[in-house]
Design goal:
- The protein is built from no helices and 41 strands.
- The protein is mostly beta strands and 446 residues long.
- The protein folds into 3 domains: 304 residues, Methylamine Dehydrogenase, Chain H (7 Propeller); 66 residues; 61 residues, no CATH class.
- It has a 5-stranded mixed sheet, with no helix packed on it. The protein has a 4-stranded antiparallel sheet with strand order 1-28-27-26, with no helix packed on it.
- A hairpin with a 4-residue loop joins strand 10 and strand 11.
């Protein structure tokens, strides 16, 4: 049962458009389109906000935190030679020169490629740029001059995917390197606004505004073939995020009622209204595992332009049973009655993890490898994709994709228990025998 108690918080009444959380700094940063030298604000708890000096009074519309670079990066839709800004602490910011003075709208980071991709609303044939560090930017050819409003990276598929706001047939583009892009078609000719990748569902999931009746979302296993999702309200959905610790997608809207302007999905296809919100124009959303909080930002309201929802959090030490495995699934069960309290994914190989849960009772926590799929024919797989045999009882082993491609067309190949196994155009490398789940607890949420 999700908590309906969304609570608004005060902040300087700028038009706040995007928010990001830094686990390293334990800091949330919002950026906005209005304000004089005040288009950045920070908070360590989501409740109390401090305005920071922006290096320029530009319309900042997106911000991301990059763990590997230990850096915030933000982009703007205006400016001359200064449409990017970066910060290592969220407080002190520097303007950076983009590859072109386009209207830059969205950013995504690929850890595998060590590359940032930024997409734009303007420019002729150059509405994409890339950077290894957020400072030095290079133009890439855009296959169409659309309003590219959102971009996301899939580690499992090894591709960037970007969506256009234009209701045209070729309103999706994908790239395996951030430089060369191919066009594809969305599920519908809608005004798509935001895109996220869910490693748990193995799906890209998108939301839209202005158009669509009961189907203002779509999903795809490969970024190429898209199907419509089921949405509970025809609102102007502005942002969708994948919440890894809770294993669900959440979206916020700039329209609608307090009973339906936030929605969530536990499968990437079907959406449920999350009641108890506040009626404002919500544009940005992030989640802090350390705080156990969703934090949204918006551009209307007297001073209540921040919205938070808090969960109890279980914190425990985790020692991985497989040294080379990156992702683990964590499940919490009520120690009293066995009911499910929370489901999440952690990336840390060892150390402390934080799992938000839906209740305050003591819990047993089970950790096990996150497996992307059983073997299937004609399945597109990216680097790092974790596979198990389609008969795990007799073959309880794991393989990692080390050459991305598409699996074979016939039956499951004999997957070698050492070295590599060719499979269609993909290659699997043996990882480990499937370990027994690790159980910890009982642990009390705080």
């Amino acid at each position: 049962m999700l908590d309906d108690a969304w609570v608004s918080k005060s902040i300087t009444p700028n038009d706040w458009r995007s928010i990001a959380w830094s686990p390293k700094l334990s800091l949330a940063v919002v950026v906005g389109e209005t304000g004089t030298g005040t288009r950045i604000a920070t908070s360590s708890d989501g409740d109390n906000w401090t305005v920071r000096t922006s290096p320029a009074d530009l319309q900042y519309v997106d911000i991301i935190w990059i763990d590997e670079l230990e850096l915030f990066v933000s982009c703007a839709t205006d400016g001359v030679g200064n449409g990017i800004m970066t910060s290592s602490d969220g407080i002190n910011w520097s303007s950076r020169t983009p590859a072109a003075d386009n209207q830059w709208l969205s950013l995504a980071w690929s850890p595998a490629l060590n590359l940032i991709v930024c997409v734009a609303n303007s420019g002729v044939g150059n509405r994409i740029m890339t950077s290894p560090d957020g400072i030095n930017w290079t133009s890439s050819a855009s296959p169409a001059d659309h309003v590219w409003l959102s971009v996301a990276w899939s580690e499992a598929l090894g591709i960037f995917c970007s969506l256009a706001h234009n209701p045209v047939s070729d309103n999706v583009m994908i790239s395996s390197d951030g430089i060369n892009w191919s066009l594809h078609s969305a599920a519908n000719l809608y005004n798509w606004t935001s895109l996220a990748w869910s490693p748990y569902f193995g799906l890209f999931v998108a939301v839209c505004q202005l158009t669509g009746t009961g189907d203002r979302s779509m999903y795809s296993e490969d970024g190429i073939n898209w199907l419509s999702g089921n949405t509970p309200a025809d609102n102007n959905w502005r942002k969708v995020i994948w919440c890894e610790p809770l294993a669900m997608l959440v979206a916020v809207a700039s329209s609608g009622l307090s009973t339906d302007n936030i929605m969530y999905s536990i499968n990437g296809i079907d959406w449920i209204s999350w009641t108890g919100s506040v009626v404002e124009e919500w544009f940005g959303l992030t989640f802090s595992p350390e705080l156990g909080r969703f934090i949204a930002c918006g551009r209307t309201g007297a001073t209540d332009r921040i919205l938070v929802n808090e969960f109890p959090v279980i914190s425990a030490e985790f020692i991985e049973p497989i040294p080379d495995l990156d992702l683990y699934r964590i499940r919490a069960h009520n120690a009293i009655n066995g009911e499910s309290l929370g489901l999440g994914i952690i990336q840390k190989k060892q150390g402390t993890y934080h799992l938000p849960v839906t209740g305050n009772d003591p819990a047993f926590v089970v950790s096990e490898p996150l497996i992307n799929s059983v073997w299937k024919p004609n399945m597109k797989v990216g680097l790092g994709f974790i596979l198990i045999s389609n008969d795990p009882n007799s073959n309880p082993h794991l393989w990692r994709c080390t050459t991305k491609g598409t699996t074979g067309t016939g039956s499951e190949p004999v997957l070698n228990l050492s070295g590599t196994t060719p499979d269609g155009s993909a290659v699997w490398t043996y990882l480990s025998e499937l370990p027994e789940p690790e159980i910890d607890g009982p642990i009390f949420p705080v």
